[in-house]
Amino acid sequence: MYIDSQGKVEGANAAARKELRFTAIGPQLTAIVRRPELLGAVDVARRTKQVQTFEIVQRDQTDRHFACVASPLGLGVLLTLHDFTDIKRMEMARVDFLANASHELRTPLTSLSGFIETIRGPARDDPEARDRFLEIMQGQADRMRRLISDLLSLSRIELVEHRPPEGQADLASIVTEVREAVAPVAKSRGVELRIIGGEAPVTVTGARDELTQVVQNLIDNAIKYSESGDVVDIELASGVTASEASALAGRRWEDAGRMSIANTPGAVSGRSFAVIRVSDSGPGIERQYLPRLSERFYRVDQGRGLKPGTGLGLAIVKHVVQRHRGEFVVESEPGRGSAFGVVLPQAG
């Protein structure tokens, strides 16, 4: 956009108007921009007639990065802003992926190396021990495969988290499909999966594959922490306000500790919301652990014994929900169980 000698915006393309949220031509730059470094660069470029280059970060639920150039032009300044958030996120994702993968793969790789040495040495002539070690090695290889898969999923979601999805998906059909997919695992553990609501389609704005992963992770977690004879409830509701949705998702148990893991959608006025809530009757989670649930690789109270998993499931859920501009909440009570709720804007 072009700023004249009096600091007025005399020309701007559609992208600049959308980003800075103004429509009319002629406002003072100081009326639409509150960034001292940007205003200062424009002033220096006007006074010194020298090009100023700089970067700014727009802090939000997901940060956005801009490369800016203020170039003297006539009596005014031509200001350009280039959004390079995707490039920045790719760099960060690559660094995070390498750091996490190298750290988390170290343990299973060390274990595999130890068993290989044992099979080649003391267990060389012991078929029974060799078979037992090979079974353990297969388990470690499967763990590494799941870990790499979850890390890649998390990296892909983080790359596009600042861009809301544009498609539509039916939560009711997703829940039905996921329940059918995990039914054999639930049956083997003696756990019943019960769907409440969702008889009619529940259409939300979102990416179907990502929302399927959210539902799958939440149901997998509930099964994992349930005992034989327990029931996992998968509840669906739609057509409610933001405040009603938040209450349905995570304010149902009077004595439970609760935590909002992802941002609330309440700022979106005039929208209806859908809710999916997955609850179990497992051991529950004490209040002090709730704030860290969505951290990568965090496992609650390791002294009670770890359940199988990569420790990335809830982190994936959090980032998918943030991309969908929804809300992710948990409430839990030791001795009663845990409930994880997701609120999403409905389509239309």
List keywords for this structure.
348 residues, alpha+beta, Beta-Lactamase, Helix Hairpins, Heat Shock Protein 90, 3 domains, 6-stranded mixed sheet, 13 strands, 42% helix
Give a concise summary.
The chain is α+β, with helices and mostly antiparallel strands. The protein folds into three domains: 2-83, PAS domain (Beta-Lactamase); 86-157, Orthogonal Bundle (Helix Hairpins); 164-345, Histidine kinase-like ATPase, C-terminal domain (Heat Shock Protein 90), CATH 3.30.565.
Tell me about this structure.
The chain is α+β, with helices and mostly antiparallel strands and 348 residues long. The chain folds into 3 domains: 2-83, PAS domain (Beta-Lactamase, 2-Layer Sandwich), CATH 3.30.450.20; 86-157, Signal transduction histidine kinase, dimerisation/phosphotransfer (DHp) domain (Helix Hairpins); 164-345, 2-Layer Sandwich (Heat Shock Protein 90). The protein contains 10 helices and 13 strands. The chain has helices at 14-20, 29-32, 36-48, 85-104, 106-120, 127-159, 171-188, 208-224, 242-250, 313-323, and strands at 2-3, 9-11, 52-58, 64-73, 76-83, 168-170, 192-196, 203-205, 231-240, 257-260, 273-279, 327-333, 337-345. A 6-stranded mixed sheet has the order 7-9-11-13-12-10, with helices on both faces. A hairpin with a 5-residue loop joins β3 (52-58) and β4 (64-73). The two termini are 34 Å apart.
